[in-house]
Known about the structure:
- There is one protein chain.
- The protein is mainly alpha-helical.
- It is globular.
- It folds into two domains: 30-177; 223-431, no CATH class.
- The relative contact order is 0.09.
- Residues 6-21 have low confidence and may be disordered.
- The chain has helices spanning 2-24, 42-54, 57-60, 103-112, 127-130, 135-146, 170-177, 191-203, 207-210, 250-259, 272-279, 285-298, 301-304, 308-318, 330-338, 340-343, 361-364, 369-377, 399-413, 422-431, and strands at 77-80, 83-86, 228-230, 233-235, 261-262, 266-267.
- GO terms for molecular function: electron transfer activity; heme binding; iron ion binding; oxidoreductase activity, acting on CH-OH group of donors.
- Pfam families: Cytochrom_C (PF00034).
Amino acid sequence: MIGRIVAALTGIGVVAGAGFLAIAWHPAIAPVAPPTAGSFDTASIERGRVLAAGGYCAECHTRRDGQQGAPLAGDYAMATPFGTIHSSNITPDPETGIGRWSLAAFTRAMRHGVSRDGANLFPAFPFDHFTHMTDGDIADVYAFLMTRPPVHAQKRENTVPFPANIRLFQGGWKLLFLHPGVYRPDPAHDAQWNRGAYLAEGLSHCGACHTPRNMLGAEKSDAAYDGAPVDNWIAPPLNATNPTPVTWTENEFFSYLRYGVAPLHGSAAGPMSPVVHGGLSEMPESDVRAIAVYLADLDHAASRQGGDSARLTAAMASSTRDLTGPQTDPDARLYAGACAACHANTGAQPVPGRPDLALNNALWLSEPTNLYQVVLRGIGTAEGQAGITMPSFYHSLTDADLARLAAYLRRTRTTLPPWTDLEKKAAAVRSTLPAPPVAASH
Length: 442
């Protein structure tokens, strides 16, 4: 009897193992001679350039951690809970890049997360989003990439430990979390909404940063766009759980994504800055508008704007709090000296380029991470709104100063509970940043 049970279990294991191999194992696709630039249609190359910008290819495939790499040559370090993964070289170099990849091999990578040699790719490459792109868009991106200057560049080794580094096991991840297939338009919505959904869910993979992930590194489908930590920042919620007092409307989303600043919410900084200025800025305005329409629908903006006017009035009333008369609160004096010159608004709306902190995402999130990042880093000329900068306070404010400032703003500009361990968290954020040069004295 025991022998029969063992035999049955063994048989089940063999069948299950064979089934898993059938899903997880993929054959190599034969290499091709690197195609010449002249073999691609110029219109396809140009469409691919725009699509590659909208998919942020260069952002994740160009090294920047202390050493500037060649565009698209890979080796960008992505810190994950499973170790550091370095992006691939996607220039047409025949040895270290994708120069010998056919369109079929490239399409398989985009749709199914499988390399030309048959190895499963880690989902740090967002093939779970790119799978929704059309064949034509994938072919155009391929045409663009294969006509870039080839760069011979080896990437560093990943630090993913055993057994997570076994590529075959990624087949199980895909079985659970990959839903391949081209985006299908939702007949309940118009063409503009569907275009925005196609871009946000596919090419531009917004959820890759703005959706929290489970223990296996997959996006939580029941918490789509609820916000998540990314690159030592917090990508805020893009849905109705966003805590800011004034609704993210279509126009606010559009202004932010197109110009790097939402008048009633703030500026694009940190990881979002290249998304706006290096990616979406290359796309047609109609596409950016379509994404804004889709996101505004996700956060139910149309049904949530009723109280915006009153909340805006309350926020503007708090903008100059503690700035008139004797200042007995030392934290208020700190704010007045460091921040008020730019962030105190006296009108009914914030002055363009001077976000009102009572409206800003950074003060309403569950942690002060983004507030600390902006104060310590500043906002450079290539970030946020064109022509507007914010100085770094890295050297002029201590961690204790940052903690006092954060506590003051949280209690006077929001209706939320106070943050905790503020000085410790300030030190933690500071430790992730290189010290900027000290300005020369005169």
